[in-house]
Amino acid sequence: MIDTHTHVTSCADDPAEVLARARAAGVRRFITIGSSPREMSEAAALVETHPDVYTTAGLHPHHAADWSEAIADEIRARAAHPRCVAIGETGLDWFRDRAPREAQIGAFRAQLAIARELGLPVVIHCRDAEDDCFTHLAAEAPPTVILHCFAATARLDEAIERGWFCSFAGNVTYGSAVDLQDAARRVPDELILLETDAPYLAPVPHRGRPNEPAYVMDTLAFVAGLRGVEPARLADRVESNAARAFSLA
To answer: Which tens digit of pLDDT belongs to each residue from 46-74?
Structure first.
């Protein structure tokens, strides 16, 4: 199994301990996200000492007001590492609005351009901004789109038609997530991914506690139940999809 989106360096415990627990639970590979200059630096250091860890390079929409050419250059430099496998997470967040919307759109479009320039997939954060996110993604046409922590349930058919990967996090296990669970049933085998987004969104039965990569196995079991398949079969599919989405060796 692979955790396709985690923030290992933001977990409370030492990253080596967090990774060891996940490996013991059956997680073989990890993509730890770089979504700020600090996180990119910490993730890059982790990659050097853990050969089963990959990373990304980008600027989260919450930090979009900090966008600059220097950050763009840093993203390009980080992306040159052979185990930096995507640009992002980037996108739009109209729920928290922690950065001005114009700044978010500017940083988002710039990172989509970098993804096209480098031929890398892009990891998308989209919260309460589906119309604008989808419009810019369709217009900018990055090589591969991963809709992280998928929530655009009303636009699932469009995402499928465009061949975008839909990655489900621990919130799919919540009792109130009926629409999200329906999406997790309906997304085609070839487009489904799973993640933790640790330390956020811990799945049931860990809800209310900090999340960690080991808990992707709980999300796996839940989604496998929704889809009527064995967890091992879904794990193989997720690993295969992740290898294709992120060009993993």
So the answer is: 999 999 999 999 999 999 999 999 999 99
State which H helix or E strand residue 90 sits in: strand 84-93
Sort residue 44 into left (φ over 0), alpha (ψ -120 to 50) or beta: alpha
Q: Give dist(CA 183, CA 215) in Å, integer.
A: 21
Query: Which tokens in the block code for residue 142?
Result: 């990055």
For residues 37-68, one letter each, b for 16 or more C-beta atoms within 10 angstroms of the residue's C-beta and e for the rest, the string is bebbebbbebbeebeebbbbbbbbbbbbeebe
Total of domains in the chain: 1
Instruction: Give the Cα-Cα-Cα angle 140, 144, 150 (nearest 5 degrees).
Output: 95
Residue 2 near residue 30 (C-beta atoms within 8 A): yes
Domain coverage including residue 109: 2-246
**Phi, psi for residue 135 in degrees, rounded to 5:** -60, -45
The closest of 21, 46, 47 to 217, measured between CA atoms, is 21
Give the global pTM: 0.97
pLDDT in tens, 125-166: 999 999 999 999 999 989 999 999 999 999 999 999 999 999
CATH number of the domain bearing residue 38? 3.20.20.140
Beta-carbon contacts of 232 under 8 Å, excluding residues fewer than 6 positions away, are none
